[in-house]
Write a structure and sequence with these properties.
The chain has 492 residues and is mostly beta strands. The chain folds into four domains: 7-50, no CATH class; 55-151, Immunoglobulin-like, CATH 2.60.40; 156-257, Immunoglobulins (Immunoglobulin-like); 262-484, Sandwich (Immunoglobulin-like). It has no helices and 44 strands. The strands form eleven sheets. It has a six-stranded mixed sheet, with no helix packed on it. It has a five-stranded mixed sheet with strand order 6-13-12-8-10, with no helix packed on it. The mean pLDDT is 93.
Length: 492
């Protein structure tokens, strides 16, 4: 007889001529079986050992398990798996090789492992890629798979980018208008990091309201909202950071402002009134701002359109082959404005250029340049003699329907004092505002004059604007800026 599940092939055997009785045993259970032989009431016992059938070794369903999961995807931390090998009868099989492979970038620490005395093979995995990696264990061409998860390394999390939702950057400062921003958070290996706390900031203090913190979702995205007050605030920069890291600026600055003003017009050549295509119109909140708050480019017909909010701005208009125009744009109370920008072509060896512009009224203002002569007299360059002999200067454009420009170009300067004045040719109105003169010199400098700042009579029949001393190599422009009812050809 035998125990532990063993079956004796022939349970009763007659001894042979040598007094020996032989039998065999089978078993489906690995391990020791005690065999007992009896004769005439006497017994003896020995142990027979059955071993697992390695040739039928397999990993059955559920025999590949995860023992450690959700390690950081940093190439160092490990997940772990265990495979248990059994034979066809369910006995655990030691000393058989089990091979492990994994996908999604995971690296198996030991790819081939011998089962131990318990038929178990253990290995670990690392990864730089967060997410699910399928681990497959194989033995005797049989395999099982299980999914293990690597997570992003929040300890190395940083904000990789901050984006304004949508393309709109201008909204009304009404106390309820909002902008939405989304920050993306990644770890050192580029994995999106969920459940990270993002700190938000903005650079305009109490003038706007910003949600200070938000957490990333499963896609590593954190969202915040910027809300207006009733204060007009321009060029608001929103930024985001993890903990005390350097904040990352959003891709666009935004504005909460007063109602928008539709500003339209043309960009024109001051010497011939030709339209200028592809001129860039940049509108700044202040002259020292590094980037414009609004920007546009004139079309093929020289037309432009831009919609700043109500306010006082600094404008720079530039085009290839032209001297950049810089001036203020006052639309603090406007709802719409039609305005042409007049550019001077590069001087290209000319001594100076003078451009007069004004509004729709008076209809006709006339430029007069009194050029000194060697005999002590002057030559008048104006509408009545646009290119007089010996003046080395000419009237390029004579405007008679309002706005301007009236342009005079000086080819070369004479020794002596030049006088530039403006005559109101229209009989009315006698008092007006908005006339401006810009003088450009060959050295790249320029000066601007406004009748709004002029002194003198209320009746602005004549406006003596400035003098130019052409005696020295470096001409000197001196402001006069005085109105009178009589001609003042010497600018006294």
């Amino acid at each position: 007889m035998a125990d532990n599940g063993a079956t004796v092939t022939t349970a009763s055997v007659t001894t042979d001529v040598n007094g020996e009785a032989t039998t065999t045993l089978t078993n489906i259970k690995a391990g020791a079986s005690k065999v007992t032989a009896s004769v005439n009431g006497n017994k003896q016992t020995v142990e027979a050992t059955f071993i697992p059938d390695g040739s039928t070794g397999t990993i059955i369903s559920g025999a590949l398990v995860i023992t450690t999961d959700k390690a950081k995807a940093n190439g160092i931390a490990t997940n772990a798996v265990k495979a248990t090998v059994t034979d066809a009868q369910g006995n655990r099989v030691p000393n058989v090789p089990v091979t492990f492979v994994a996908d999604n970038g995971a690296t198996v620490t030991t790819a081939s492992v011998m089962t131990d005395v318990n038929g178990e093979a253990n290995t670990t995995l690392t990864n730089l890629t967060a997410g699910v990696s399928k681990v497959t264990a194989s033995v005797n061409s049989n395999s099982q798979s299980v999914n293990t998860t690597f997570v992003a390394d929040v300890d190395t999390a940083i904000v990789s980018q901050v984006l304004l939702d949508g393309t709109v950057t201008d909204k009304i400062a009404d106390g309820s208008s909002t902008f939405t921003y989304t920050a993306t958070v990644k770890d050192a290996n580029g994995n999106l990091v969920p459940n990270a706390t993002v700190n938000w900031s903005q650079d305009k203090g109490a003038a706007v309201v910003l949600t200070a913190q938000s957490n990333t979702d499963a896609s590593g995205k954190a969202v915040t909202t910027l809300t207006s007050t009733t204060t007009s605030v321009l060029q608001i920069q929103v930024a985001a950071a993890i903990a005390s890291a350097t904040p990352v600026n959003a891709d666009k600055k935004v504005n909460f402002s007063k109602p928008l003003v539709q500003v339209t017009g043309r960009v024109l050549d001051g010497t011939n009134n030709a339209t200028i295509a592809n001129a860039k119109v940049d509108v700044y909140v202040s002259k020292n701002d590094p980037s414009p708050a609004y920007s546009t480019t004139s079309d093929g017909s020289g037309n432009y359109a831009i919609s700043p909010s109500q306010g006082l701005y600094y404008v720079k208009v530039s085009a290839s082959g032209y001297i950049p125009l810089e001036e203020t744009l006052d639309i603090q109370s406007a709802t719409s404005l039609s305005k042409d920008f007049i550019l001077s072509p590069d001087l290209n060896g000319k001594a100076a250029r003078i451009i007069l512009t004004w509004g729709t009224s008076p209809k006709d203002l006339d430029s007069h340049l009194y050029v000194p002569t060697t005999g002590g007299g002057t030559i008048n360059v104006s509408y009545s003699n646009k290119n007089p002999s010996g003046a080395d200067a000419n009237l390029d454009v004579d405007a008679t329907g309002g706005n301007g420009p009236e342009t005079i170009t000086i080819d070369s300067l004479h020794a002596g004092s030049y006088c530039y004045l403006v005559q109101r040719f229209s009989s009315t109105p006698t008092t007006y505002t908005g006339a401006n003169v810009k003088v450009y010199l060959a050295d790249g400098s320029s000066k601007s004059f406004s009748i709004n700042n002029a002194t003198g009579t209320a009746d602005k029949h004549y406006w003596a604007v400035f003098k130019i001393d052409g005696t020295s190599a470096q001409p000197v422009v001196t402001s006069v800026n005085k109105t009178s009812t009589t001609d003042n050809p010497s600018c006294n």
